[in-house]
């Protein structure tokens, strides 16, 4: 693996890397950094946990250091899908650029008037790197006070997630405010057609880097349980008992209701747990994340808002309380563990309705995930059949039933007539 001192970085940037204990580049950093330093536009496809944030931050920070311009203006704009990710990137800039003097500012919604003015000043008076969510960044740009004439770099992070969230038009509108002559970097975990379409509109003759697309990290031990829905909460409790050596555990649930119900039950059982979902305001979410990151909480129950973007190393266990709707999202949920060459465990609960979805996950990652027996005291779970139709059961399930009044005033069910 390539050492960071081989890239020709400024000494002040290398000092920051040394203080953080970073010596060798990850594969995505090894391939992307030289291309960015050569001022190429870039499409980079890499899964969560591969070091992609540093892959674009390090060369950009280095170029800002070498420029040494006396003019204070925005040099780089990074667009990210969520507040959490924008804050995470801002924190990483602060750490990497600690000895350089490079300044960053996050731009995101859900803030009070004082925070809005702070964001306005960063855009108006200049900050080297702006990290913003699409909606809030566009709102600021429409006021016309952003100082962007010297902007050199545009970075789209988690581009596939932004498009999934409906930000395609916002991104195109934002780009209209930027200089035509710039370097554009697009980072994405997956590369569907819609990302190719966006890249064609925003990048010029881009180079491409692809690293381990849609495969969980090698250090993740994966397993699954076939369960009925009414067994899930009890199974979580059973699995967590005696796991005091697991310092950080994330449980992903597909709905806010499941998230709340599970968190409530675990609190009753005296587990160190809290929840995060869209019903919490920004300040509440930040407190929960900070407590979890600082190991004040052992267990975090979260909806998919955290399936990508959270930067917390050494997650011991990930539990998929529900099978994610998209196979790629499984990779990102599982990617919370076994980061930075650590090992981790990922468990998934599969109810009959989700067996077909889990089959697609196994097809995507090209391996069969072991199905474990339920612990002693649990009734047997459903048989696993990845070809099972989601609506399996009664042959009339999902069809509109045909009721008519009988002579006694009640209702009876009339089976549909067979077609000739």
Structure description:
The protein has 420 residues and is α/β, with parallel strands linked by helices. 35% of the residues lie in helices and 17% in strands. The strands form three sheets. The protein has a seven-stranded parallel beta sheet, sandwiched between helices. Helix 3 (52-67) crosses helix 4 (83-96). The chain is globular. The relative contact order is 0.12. Mean pLDDT is 85; it is low at 392-420.
Range of strand content: 15-25%
Question: What is the number of domains?
Answer: 2
Gross morphology? globular
Encode the helix/strand succession as letters: HHEHEHEHEHEHHEHEEHEHEHEEHEHEEE
Write the layout of secondary structure elements.
Elements: H1 11-19, H2 27-37, E1 42-46, H3 52-67, E2 76-79, H4 83-96, E3 104-107, H5 113-125, E4 129-132, H6 134-141, E5 153-156, H7 159-164, H8 168-175, E6 183-188, H9 193-202, E7 207-211, E8 220-226, H10 232-240, E9 249-252, H11 256-268, E10 273-276, H12 282-293, E11 299-302, E12 317-320, H13 327-334, E13 344-350, H14 355-365, E14 371-372, E15 402-405, E16 411-414
Parallel strand pairs: 1-6, 1-7, 2-4, 2-5, 3-4, 5-6, 8-13, 8-14, 9-11, 9-12, 10-11, 12-13
Antiparallel strand pairs: 15-16
Question: How would you describe this structure in keywords?
Answer:
disordered C terminus; seven-stranded parallel β-sheet; 14 helices; 420 residues; 16 strands; 17% strand; alpha/beta; Rossmann fold; 2 domains
